């Protein structure tokens, strides 16, 4: 007999679906607890909320994943996580190498300074689509969204490969970013659907595990591709590789879904409208398309102009820069007001008031913000300012990911025993400040101390990074019931990508407003000013003409030391809020279940026991409710 869980009492009661096992691990009785990192837990099968909550049917995608989860035997789970590793290996290696190819692509278009603009566009897209992806995954299912992610990934890759100008290349980056972030989010949701809280951090790091390998081979891959071909083939080959690597994950989930249906599971209907019009309106409101448009519009109009302003101060006085920034800031209060009255806001408002939620969101936002200020142009600084080779610069750029994943996997095993998060997060704050201190001190030069210093800074930042993002992910998931895990996960990734966009915007603004002027000053005695413009626009093309030791190269290195110092000081300043949020975060004891038994209890008590996504009593919400009900 199938089961469902009373969310208030935590007791197991008879459910409506026959033939579904009470546990996820074959051979276990329904009243026995599974053991080990791959152990399964008793699935929840609520068709309605408890008496304390408003009666509402569980989302079809969530119900289907719970059914799939119940059908996964031990060997299925091994295949599932192995498939996740294969997919993550593919998009991880592509991500590392594509960032390098992107620098060469913008340089080939003589638009290298637009590198941060493209990164901002990617960050804006990634930030605004995460809640939309989570809601689509809850409505239509995880498998369907992953297939869609693969399609967008391939589309973006093909567009970038055949781009003839930087505008088309940026358009391809947009499609690629949708596919990449959709893949990343769906995989993290699947992991949250199939692991216990105490082992969550270890398995959450599984998609990042390939960085342990990719860090060391990515440089060789880039060097080999650029030696035998161009950056176009380096990007384009992933349009073939990635879909092939995605097949095992899709197959294992589809087969488990079929088994669940043969066992008698029938998911709730996707739409409950009387006709097509009602169903379309339901989808419109449930996806909160208005909120997504306001959020993406605000981010795009504020952040992108900051990097497009160029190296001249007069650009900041032009209407093309000022107007979108002003409109973007006006969109922010409009977005907040809309979310307060939206029929289906991006995140239930009672959760945003929970200290465990907003502190975790603050940590990931400022960590990413702080890191991206120096990471955006790190590869260029390593090649130009430190005279590292292509392979060495690529590896050093990847050191953060390597150290973060290695630390995170080890820390995940420790946390599965300790079951606490906060002490490790606080330790990470101290390491983060030490790492940035090294970057400020060793900001450029061809000497051994400078080179060792920047490598040491990246290593320490990476170790600190293992103490931050995924502990925050587990923290925020510990605050939610299963039906809210996907949307909270998406919100955390949204804030991370907002930090990504903000970091790129700030670094881009500093780069465009400072570097060109500094190059003009340092190279003033060598030509009439055209050399500074050439180095600023296409540094990789100019460097071979001026070997290390020549006066021109020494002047160029001096300029890059100056900009790296500004970026590093800004980055360490942006790290201060991390400490504040780390001190305020909760420290729950992680359980053996998929979710904490007392999840949302405090948030519900503060909201008079109503945690349902009920419509706020306002003009817009009543209007939306009438449209939804026809």
UniProtKB/TrEMBL annotation:
Transmembrane segments annotated in the record for this chain: 74-93, 145-163, 169-190, 202-221, 233-256, 289-309, 321-338, 358-379, 399-416, 423-442, 454-473, 485-511, 566-585
InterPro entries in the cross-refs: MFS_trans_sf
Compartment(s) of residence: Endomembrane system
Name of the protein: Major facilitator superfamily (MFS) profile domain-containing protein
GO cellular component: endosome; plasma membrane; vacuolar membrane
Chain positions covered by the region annotation Disordered: 1-44, 597-618
Native organism taxonomy: Eukaryota, Fungi, Dikarya, Ascomycota, Pezizomycotina
Assigned protein family: Belongs to the major facilitator superfamily.
Compositional bias per record (Basic and acidic residues), positions renumbered to this chain: 598-608
